[in-house]
Amino acid sequence: MRQGTGTALVTGANRGLGLEACRQLGRLGWRVWLTAPDSKEGQQACDWLRSEGLDIHFEPLDVASPESLSSLVERLEQRGVRLSALINNAGIAMEGFNAHVAECTVAVNFFGPLHVTERLLPLMEEHGRIVMVSSSLAELKDYPPAFQRRFDPPPPKEQLQAMLRSFIEDVRTGVYEERGWPGSAYRVSKLGLNALTRLLAQELKPRNQLVNAVLPGWVRTQMGGPHAARSIERGADIIVWAATLPPEGPTGGLFINRRPIPW
Predict the structure, then answer these.
(1) Bridge partners for 79 per DSSP
(2) pTM greater than 0.85
């Protein structure tokens, strides 16, 4: 991993994996922009890390809000910020399953990383790294072959977005099962995120940007619960590893424990 040579932005970083990724990057000497939708929680997290002497700065960001994202981009541009790494960590897992849950989950877990990445690309340095925090629940091997073919190979970006919107509509109209969708908005959102990772990796190769998805595992966070197998420190390791890859590092891959695995 490269030390002391970059600036990173982390979404959803007021707690859990995002917060720990900020801390680990800060301890490597990186400047980190910690973002979160709640300004009070985000600033408290930032102040806590700054108390350790780390170069951490807070900016509010709701990844599902175009207005919030536009405001963030404007503020970063005014400061002349250039990013070496973007970590799309923000994610939600809501209870229940209905159209509202599907829409909110896809908005944060899929469209959030898509829009954040597209808007921040002009601020990315050459050989920048983009990290998508995914889930083992989206590994294609766990799905029927016909369903796998929806995502492998990934459809064009516009078609992928339309497919995720169709999922929401299928849930709303009660036909998601007959259309072959699993009854989990979280799973579908992360399947979409994985496909997006592969598309962006190909799209950004000419710009020397590395785009990878990582699996932190079952981690003792608010989402993972107290009985999860992994510590937050271990879970964040793979995120930080992908964010600090050398210029010749891999792109378009899915990784766990710093090792590639099939999509």
Answers:
(1) none
(2) yes
Taken in order of first residue, the domains within the chain and their CATH numbers are 7-94+110-136+191-261 (3.40.50.720)
Between CA 4 and CA 94, with CA 119 as vertex, the angle to 5 degrees is 90
The per-residue pLDDT for range 177-222, each reduced to its tens digit, is 999 999 999 999 999 999 999 999 999 999 999 999 999 976 656 6
Give the C-alpha separation, 179 to 151, whole Å: 15
Active site residues: 186
SS (H, E, C) 188-242: HHHHHHHHHHHHHHHHHHHHCCEEEEECCCCECCCCCCCCCCECHHHHHHHHHHH
Total residue count of the chain as it appears in this document: 263
- Collapsed DSSP state (helix, strand, coil) of residue 73: helix
Write out pLDDT tens, residues 101-127: 999 999 999 999 999 999 999 999 999
